[in-house]
Write a structure and sequence with these properties.
The protein has 24 helices and twelve strands. By secondary structure, the chain is mostly helical. The strands form six sheets. Strands 1-3 form a two-stranded antiparallel ribbon. It has a two-stranded antiparallel sheet with strand order 2-10.
């Protein structure tokens, strides 16, 4: 984040650069901070408020960039799910797409990726935790620390610590909880040996830490400090964790028993994951989401409609409110821009009311955007979306593709005959009919064959039509024989592409972009999902407020439908709302589409207990060897390399704990299957 970089530069000027240099000790998971030499320089680090705050932000600066989920990624990310694929295959230093490594079973307790950095982040998160504990244990030392500054530092520090544990929990499973303890150096192995927490213990601890942090945090950090977490960020992450905790994989039902019935802590024979279902967890998750909603600070981002906005389709009867004005209906807003602007840089992230927490980052353009741009325009053209995702998008009238086949509104034969332009999005004539009449998020997110890449800042190439047929410049045969730079599925992620973005030509530039860590749309869908899974009424106490939670159909409808209306789609019908199973499936589809490539799918399919089901279905796309339209538009399983063969294994719920840690800590249990 920019503010981290500024703080780091200030510290360098203050000749405190040793703060950020790190070398590991032999007790890596508790990481003694040799890079600051805490034992020697502790008086300097905490001698005044300014140094203490700098030290705190030094801990925060150690987090990986959350947008780095694809190339040199710190987490499995989209490439490890059924929403993405990369044609780059093989090992070696050129393979830095660790999500593909994870999905194909290459990641192990001794291998986390061929490049550096890689996915082994276990030690780094514990370094952060130790630094935060040092701050919390020394809050009384700076003589110039005012009570207001103390609260601010304590709030941020508790958030940083909770966020480190959060990252450990979602990627590695139950962590080792060390509380406020600052681990000593030069102790015996017995001193360092600790067992992992259970999943329930970890969730309770992390949520408590976030909530305690929230008490000291501001609701707004200002435009110049965009990227610093707020009270809303802390409470939103609680809502996310509570939903995960309530979900089938971790909530004692059949899925939890199937995966974890035999996984017990060897120190006391306690199940790591509860084997007893607790419906109240859903109520707690709903209350946590409602608490964020009740803050009144956040809402879905929208852009008013104009003459260029695509009109809503006529004849939709499943939702009587559909033709009402937004937010009660879908009228009055531009459905493409209301979604697209969040990600392309058109909307100013710091004042976007939907973004609860995000960060400015160069990696969206350097990796996500360039990775999808056609090679003819200076991109790599290989950050692919799967056919499954394309098929999941609804038609613009809210029907599925299969429902729309009946009257020919959806077709996998023929091509469009007239060019169209809506919301400044050009759609060529001659585009495959599969891509016609789709909902606006499809056009905002998917780069398909013969889609237009505007590249308006380039002085040489504008409104370029990318063709992926075998012999064309951006197709498999058009790039060099050994190049992986073509879309192996026939689709690329276009979600982060602004019409001005260009990578070559006079004047070529890209819009600055922010990566969204959590946004209000997630809170609304989490609230709907949590309510939908309730069968009774529950009272939940969150801090000083009490919530009475039940499966309220009006609340489910309002929170879910607002997402649909923003996309220009009808909401849930009365008959759909009456069936919890149907509502759950609709939520699953909605999250897949709404949060495409936002690093939610990996965790969603696991917590729902459908990971094996989703991964067993082969990845499909169009035929990259097709030189004609007839040959190209065939559904195929792309690639023959073993590096594209995805492994379906229950161990892939989490990453493995590094083997070195297991050797050092006799009480530390490995994740199942490794």
């Amino acid at each position: 984040m920019k503010y981290y970089a500024i703080i780091i530069r200030i510290i360098q000027i203050m000749v405190l650069i040793p703060i950020f240099y790190f070398t590991s000790s032999c007790k890596d998971y508790l990481n003694i901070d040799n890079y600051f030499d805490d034992e020697f320089n502790i008086d300097s680090a905490f001698s005044n408020a300014r140094n203490m705050e700098a030290y705190m932000w030094g801990a925060a600066a150690m987090f990986p960039d959350e947008s780095n989920t694809i190339r040199l990624g710190f987490t499995p990310g989209p490439m490890a799910t059924d929403e993405a694929l990369n044609g780059l295959t093989g090992g070696g230093s050129s393979n830095v797409y660790y999500g593909m490594d994870f999905a194909t079973g290459r990641i192990s307790p001794v291998f986390y990726g061929d490049g550096s950095p890689n996915m082994n982040q276990w030690n780094k998160f514990y370094k952060i935790i130790r630094k935060t504990n040092l701050v919390l244990n020394n809050l009384d030392r700076p003589q110039d620390l005012t009570s207001i500054d103390r609260q601010k530092i304590e709030g941020f520090t508790r958030f940083i610590r909770a966020y480190a544990y959060y990252n450990l929990l979602i990627d590695y499973g139950p962590p080792i909880l060390v509380g406020n303890e600052v681990i000593n150096t030069n102790e015996t192995i017995a001193y360092y040996d600790r067992a992992r927490s259970t999943y329930d213990e970890a969730v309770a601890y992390i949520c408590t830490e976030f909530e305690q942090a929230a008490q000291f945090m501001s609701e707004d950090v200002g435009i110049l400090d965009f990227g610093k977490p707020t009270r809303g960020a802390a409470l939103a992450l609680v809502a996310r964790l509570r939903l995960i905790h309530a979900s089938p994989l971790f909530n004692g039902g059949q899925v939890a028993k199937t995966y974890y019935s035999s996984w017990k802590r060897k120190t006391d024979d306690q199940h790591y994951v509860s084997q007893h279902y607790d419906e109240k967890r859903w109520a707690i998750a709903a209350a946590a989401a409602k608490r964020v909603m009740d803050m009144g600070r956040y809402k879905l981002y929208t852009v008013e409609s104009d003459l260029k906005t695509k009109r809503l389709p006529t004849g939709v009867t499943v939702d009587p409110n559909y033709y009402g004005s937004y937010p009660s209906g879908a009228m009055g807003i531009d459905h493409l821009k209301s979604y697209s602007n969040i990600f392309t840089g058109e909307s100013v992230a710091a004042i976007n009311p939907e973004i609860i927490w995000g960060r400015n980052t160069k990696y969206i353009n350097e990796y996500l955007n360039k990775g999808s741009f056609p090679p003819s325009l200076g991109g790599w053209g290989r950050f692919c979306v799967t056919q499954k995702v394309v098929d999941a998008y609804l038609m613009d009238d809210g029907r599925t593709k299969d429902e729309a086949k009946v009257d020919g509104y959806y077709s996998e034969t023929g091509f469009t005959t007239q060019p169209r332009n809506f919301s400044d999005y050009p759609l060529n004539a001659g585009v495959y009919n599969m891509y016609a009449n789709r909902e606006m998020r499809f056009y905002a997110s998917i780069g398909f064959n013969e889609a237009v890449w505007p590249a308006l800042s380039s002085g040489s190439v504008k409104n370029y039509t990318a063709k992926y047929y075998y012999q064309d410049a951006d197709g498999r045969g058009g790039v060099t024989a050994t190049s992986p730079n073509y879309p192996i599925t026939g689709y690329v992620i276009k979600k982060y592409n602004h019409p001005l973005d260009a990578f070559q030509g006079t004047g070529a530039r890209q819009m600055n972009k922010a990566y969204v860590i959590i946004r209000y749309a997630e809170i609304l869908l989490s609230y709907a999902e949590a309510l939908n899974n309730l069968t009774g009424s529950h009272t939940v106490q969150l801090n000083e407020k009490s919530y009475t939670i039940s499966r309220d159909l009006e609340e489910i409808k309002n929170s879910f439908n607002s997402i649909r209306y923003r996309a220009g789609l009808p909401g849930l019908s009365a008959s759909q709302l009456a069936d919890p199973g149907i509502v759950q499936k609709q939520i699953e589809r909605e999250r897949m589409i709404e949060f495409l490539w936002e690093n939610r799918r990996f965790y969603d399919v696991r917590r729902w207990g459908i990971y094996e089901e989703t991964e067993r279905e082969p990845i499909r796309g169009m035929n990259p060897d097709g030189a004609t339209k007839e040959a190209y538009y065939q559904r195929v399983i792309p690639g023959t390399s073993s590096f594209l063969t995805r492994e379906v294994n229950r161990k892939l719920i989490w990453m493995p704990i590094p083997r070195d840690e297991l050797r050092r800590l006799p009480s530390l249990d490995q994740n199942p299957g490794y």
